[in-house]
Design brief:
Blueprint lengths: L4 H9 L6 E4 L2 E4 L8 H14 L19 E2 L6 E8 L2 E8 L13 E3 H16 L2 H8 L6 H20 L2 H11 E6 L3 E7 H5 L11 E7 L1 E5 L2 E5 L13 H19 L5 H8 L3 H8 L1
Parallel strand pairs: 3-7
Antiparallel strand pairs: 1-2, 4-5, 5-6, 7-8, 8-9, 10-11
Helix pairs in contact: 3-5, 4-5, 5-8, 8-10
């Protein structure tokens, strides 16, 4: 049978070939001999971490760090990806570039990369799922009913796709939409390309067709780690709207469309290709 990207990624991450067994996320020595040398295994894992699961090798493939080149700290200084390793675990961060002005009054900023990337993506989804926010962004004064409905439906579909898509494609999509991210002590500002988000050309022109979203954040210590979290859930949903149900319906439509587009593939194959749970995908597609 042909091997897709999902199949290859699963094979290349399978620790059985290293003579190990994984159970509930923990790795244990196996009773069998490894068939892949440690040096080769480490080189492959570094390559996978740099490209993302199933990432394309083309020039335009999304980098491993989602916010590379578009993130600045609270003093307007550029930030760059960084990482540290502790045993078998890798910790990713964004830190102020060493070439930027740094002194006692302007120390280096350092934030967990995964937390910040999740906050940016979640805020993006919250905006896309909010019909009132979409109407306000594209302009309601001159929009007729059909244009308004198209913008809302396009945004909802994009939000569902963003949540359903595998990691590498999700990164590429976010980078297409997000023009810049500014980090502050208490919040994150996200500049979004409006036309890309809404799926239609903006009805009223804004400055460079950019809209700025904001998400409150705070740093908390969890164990030995400093985490970046959202202190309160954003509440931009109109009264009477079941946001959870709307999100589930939108996700179901996207799942069904993906399945119908590939009638020759099984649910299991499609789920592996998308990096999704087979059972959930099947339930949504029904």
């Amino acid at each position: 049978m042909p091997f897709g990207r999902g199949h290859l990624f699963h094979l290349l991450k399978n620790r059985i070939y290293r003579g190990e067994i994984v159970h509930k996320g923990a790795v244990y020595p196996g009773e069998h001999e490894p068939v892949v040398p440690l040096a080769l295994w480490d080189a492959v894992q570094d390559k996978l971490a740099g490209n993302g699961p199933g990432a394309s090798t083309k020039v335009h493939a999304a980098p491993a760090a989602l916010l590379t080149g578009i993130l600045v700290d609270g003093l307007g200084r550029r930030m760059t990806p960084s990482q540290s390793n502790k045993k078998t675990k890798r910790y990713r961060y964004y830190v102020t570039l060493p070439t930027e002005p740094i002194d006692q009054e302007r120390p280096v900023w350092r934030v967990p990369a995964h937390d910040l990337e999740r906050i940016v993506a979640d805020r993006l989804v919250a905006f896309l799922e909010d019909p009132q926010a979409i109407l306000s962004a594209v302009g309601t004064a001159s929009a007729d009913a059909q244009e308004a409905r198209s913008a809302i439906e396009a945004a909802a579909a994009e939000a569902a796709t963003l949540q359903l898509t595998a990691t590498d494609e999700r990164s590429r999509m976010v980078r297409e939409w997000v023009a810049a991210v500014r980090l502050d002590e208490s919040h994150v500002e996200i500049d979004v390309r409006l036309a890309t988000l809404a799926g239609v050309e903006p009805i009223e022109e804004t400055a460079a067709s950019i809209i700025t979203l904001s998400a409150a954040t705070e740093r908390v210590r969890i164990g030995h780690e400093i985490k970046l979290v959202v202190p309160a859930v954003l509440d931009t949903t109109p009264t009477g709207r079941d946001d959870r149900l709307a999100r589930l319906i939108a996700e179901a439509f996207v799942a069904r469309e993906r399945v119908l587009k590939e009638p020759d593939r099984s649910i299991d194959e499609i789920a592996k290709k998308l990096g999704r749970c087979r059972t959930r995908l099947a339930t949504l597609a029904e």
